[in-house]
């Protein structure tokens, strides 16, 4: 009994992270999606029956809910403009300012990928799903997973390399003042 | 070399850990003699790491209470399950729910209303345990230090004691503030033993004062909670350690929280199956 709740609770941070990136960083929308996912998971619990890991199953529920939402709003696949990157997505716990800037660049670049590419990249490279689990979660053949993954990585590399070469002035250490780090 | 030169899909699968070890070895052999391949693998690995570095901090954000509640069973059902155990007079139901403190007793039925409050308390303690003990990065909000108990005492408006060590090699890691009752926060202390096993102490004000003090034991799928209520305060020790060890730790805490009590006034443990 507690088992089920513990399994779900342990996955909440992962679900929130995935939802946050899907929703372009809008924390309230993301948490609404997580809440809907948890409710759906409860009502469909018997259909899971402990077959396999719970995380891919939860991601598939979330993916389907998100696709339904996008069908209503008509925004599926539309790349996010950089200006839409909200403060809420910015990680607050990173160790150094330089590291933080790198992280922000990466997150900003990620938002420019279409949702299908972003989803595959997150599930495989960040959430460690196998290609098979990712295919089941997203409801596409495994070959589609691999081709999307390849495209996502190429596009992301162009986006991040482009920013690196765009001559962002390095942060100077200002003597005599407390640094931000 | 017998294996064909790996293509990009194979390199990706290698980086993602999706190749069988024999195929991984082939990729590594190729990379050892083909700098372009090696550079491609390094770039893929670096990108993967950069993604994780950028997104992992999101895992550390505190989970909003509304989501925790979605993942929790409705309290009423939980209490009903407990009362079923009570009415059947069975110590353990097949299926894992075992509330041994509800063994049939003359006053058990009268105690039921009060027990619903206690069940809610235990459930909060179990949830807090389940949420924070697996966290490798930030299991506690404030590490053990001079200001831990000062901070918790001020926020809970009550002297909070946190022994640095408990029997069984359990060492205090720190604590955090949690939602408790409306207007009354709860505190969680976390201890870890030499093998990395963690237990938590959850404490907060109870809705209704009670005269009864006794260690009660609730088991859920391998997680054991010892709890006791001392007038208007509830204390719960939750973990997956052997019961005897948990009881020792609970007794020490009980003594520390009741300095005015007689040294031998520790409550007797309720039936230990």
Task: Work out the helicity level of chain B.
Answer: 25-40%
Low-confidence stretches of chain B: 74-113, 259-273
The secondary-structure class of chain B comes to: alpha+beta
Count every helix of chain B, treating DSSP H or I runs of 4 or more residues as helices: 8
Rounded Rg of chain A: 18 Å
Multimerization state: heterodimer
Instruction: Indicate the mean pLDDT of chain B.
Output: 76
N-to-C series of helices and strands of chain B: HHHHHEHEHEEEEEEH
Largest sheet of chain B: 8 strands, antiparallel
Order of helix and strand elements from N to C terminus of chain A: HHHHHHHH
Mean pLDDT of chain A: 75
How big a fraction of the residues of chain A is strand?
under 5%
Structure overview:
The complex is a heterodimer of chains A (181) and B (273). Mean pLDDT of chain A is 75; it is low at 76-96 and 164-181. Chain A is mostly helical and 181 residues long. Helix content of chain A is 66%, strand content 0%. Chain B has helices at 8-15, 21-33, 35-55, 65-70, 75-88, 112-132, 148-156, 243-257; strands at residues 97-99, 142-143, 165-166, 170-181, 184-192, 198-210, 216-220, 223-239. In chain B, a hairpin with a 3-residue loop joins strand 3 and strand 4 (170-181). In chain B, helix 5 crosses helix 6 (112-132). Mean pLDDT of chain B is 76; it is low at 74-113 and 259-273. At the A-B interface, helix 1, helix 2, helix 5, helix 6 and helix 8 of A face helix 1, helix 3, helix 4 and helix 6 of B.
What is the topology?
The complex is a heterodimer of chains A (181) and B (273).
Chain A: H1 2-22, H2 27-43, H3 45-48, H4 54-73, H5 97-111, H6 115-126, H7 131-138, H8 142-164
Helix pairs in contact in A: 1-2, 1-4, 2-4, 4-7, 5-8, 6-8, 7-8
Chain B: H1 8-15, H2 21-33, H3 35-55, H4 65-70, H5 75-88, E1 97-99, H6 112-132, E2 142-143, H7 148-156, E3 165-166, E4 170-181, E5 184-192, E6 198-210, E7 216-220, E8 223-239, H8 243-257
Antiparallel strand pairs in B: 1-7, 2-4, 3-4, 4-5, 5-6, 6-8, 7-8
Helix pairs in contact in B: 1-3, 2-3, 5-6
